[in-house]
TrEMBL record:
The lineage of its organism: Bacteria, Pseudomonadati, Bacteroidota, Cytophagia, Cytophagales. Residues 174-290 form the GFO/IDH/MocA-like oxidoreductase domain. This is Putative dehydrogenase. Residues 38-161 form the Gfo/Idh/MocA-like oxidoreductase N-terminal domain. SUPFAM superfamilies: Glyceraldehyde-3-phosphate dehydrogenase-like, C-terminal domain, NAD(P)-binding Rossmann-fold domains. GO terms for molecular function: nucleotide binding; oxidoreductase activity. PROSITE patterns: TAT (PS51318). InterPro entries: Gfo/Idh/MocA-like_OxRdtase_N (IPR000683), Gfo/Idh/MocA_domain (IPR050984), GFO_IDH_MocA-like_dom (IPR055170), Glc-Fru_OxRdtase_bac (IPR008354), NAD(P)-bd_dom_sf (IPR036291), TAT_signal (IPR006311). Belongs to the Gfo/Idh/MocA family. It comes from Algoriphagus boseongensis.
Length: 367
């Protein structure tokens, strides 16, 4: 497989461009699929980057092979720990050279939010697939630029929506789509945690692009869409601030927001940086309900319905995510809930509308 990959890279073709026709024309692609592994470089060796690296040790289809970091000591520690060769180590100044490295297929951008767009676009221009953390960008305009840049470069853009591969979440989604709950008319999403250190980037508007809404409230936005299987047509929102010193102008502490959907369904959600243990989804339909708590934390996720508990093995979310993302990129596999740039963009459009609605105090129409 290495030789096929090298041939393609020399020929200037992305793995995306050829893996799909091969899979389609041969029908049975198991031999081709199973020995292909997505070789990933992680950019941003922070708290979440470390979690992803650890989870990737158990991956079957994805392998950590490189790093991009501004901190030399971390690079050295990761080289030791994960056996990363010096030729696969970059910093933020020189990582465009990754285009000449045939041993890296994709870069996972796990930096503060404001860096997602510029760094993802540079990765795409270097011809590598982009996996980018949520929120994909600071707003929908930036998100669209990322989608366009990746399309132009012929590379995948995937957003780190790990819940889209989580077994209990997928079971609830399946039952909702099969009509087990009847017509689903109400979703409640509660997303929050109590944030500590006031000097961290999450409380710096330049780097975070906002506050709790960008970081944790986005889970309720995203969850409402996959739990109801619809796109909202309006939002209303209200902002509450109890600590204006810690949560400065443009950094939201708490936002409550509501969304309306074409079917008549409504969502009622809370995003906050001031309460712990706030991680709950509730879906109610004419025939039944589903409840998840915790619903988006690292798990194990707990889920039950009017018919009883949902049982499924807990697998580290990021392990499943990276194996599934490898299958999307290498085999053209279609996930049940999308994780592509367009999916991330839909959330950014809604987040923009929530901020606008909170600011102007009026309902904001979408679409
Ligand atoms: P951290 O602060 O722990 O790590 C961010 C890393 O980015 C730093 O360690 C640093 O790595 C790098 N970096 C580059 N430029 C800067 C800068 N100007 N300031 C600070 N760090 C910089 O953050 P997290 O790992 O918690 O979050 C990173 C991203 O991951 C965010 O977008 C967040 O929303 C997302 N995330 C997603 C989660 C999920 O479940 N999907 C969970 C947690 C976070 P280096 O020293 O190597 O350059």
């Amino acid at each position: 497989m290495a030789s096929r990959r090298e041939f393609l890279q020399k020929a200037g073709l992305s793995t995306l461009a050829i893996s799909l026709p091969l899979a389609n024309s041969f029908g049975k692609t198991n031999e081709i699929k199973n020995d292909q592994v997505l070789r990933v470089a992680i950019m941003g060796l922070g708290s979440y980057g470390t979690r992803v690296a650890e989870a990737m040790k158990d991956c079957k289809r994805a392998k950590l092979v490189g790093v991009i970091s501004g901190t030399r000591s971390k690079v050295e520690a990761w080289q030791q720990k994960y056996g990363i060769p010096a030729k696969n180590c970059y910093n933020y100044e020189n990582f465009d050279q990754i285009k000449d490295n045939p041993d890296i297929d994709a870069v996972y951008v796990i930096t503060p939010n404001s860096l997602h767009k510029p760094y993802s676009i540079r990765v795409a221009k270097a011809g590598k697939h982009v996996i980018c953390e949520k929120p994909m960008a600071l707003n929908a305009v930036e998100g669209k630029e990322m989608v366009d840049a990746c399309k132009a470069a012929g590379v995948h853009l995937l957003i780190g929506y790990r819940m889209h591969f989580e077994a209990k979440t997928l079971e609830v989604v399946k039952r909702q789509r099969e009509g087990a709950f009847g017509k689903t008319l109400f979703f409640q999403g509660l997303s929050g945690f109590s944030i500590g250190d006031p000097t961290q980037w999450r409380l710096n508007r330049e780097l975070a692009g906002g506050g709790s809404m960008m970081d944790i409230g986005i889970y309720s936005v995203n969850g409402s869409r996959y739990m109801l299987d619809e796109e909202p047509i309006w939002v209303t929102a209200q902002e509450v601030k109890t600590d204006p010193v810690k949560f400065k102008e443009g950094v939201d502490e708490t936002i409550t927001f509501q969304m309306g959907f074409p079917s008549g369904a409504v969502a009622s959600c809370l995003s906050t940086y001031s309460l712990n243990n706030l991680d709950k989804f509730f879906l109610n339909g004419t025939k039944g309900f589903a409840e998840m708590q915790p619903s988006t934390g690292y798990g194990p996720i707990k889920a039950w319905t009017n018919q009883g508990p949902i049982e499924a093995e807990h697998i580290t979310h990021q392990t499943t995510q990276m194996d599934e993302m490898a299958a999307i990129i290498l085999d053209g596999k279609k996930p049940i809930i999308p994780v592509d740039g367009e999916e991330g963009l839909k959330d950014m459009v809604i987040v923009d509308a929530i901020y606008k609605a909170a600011k102007i105090g009026e309902k904001v129409m979408l679409g």
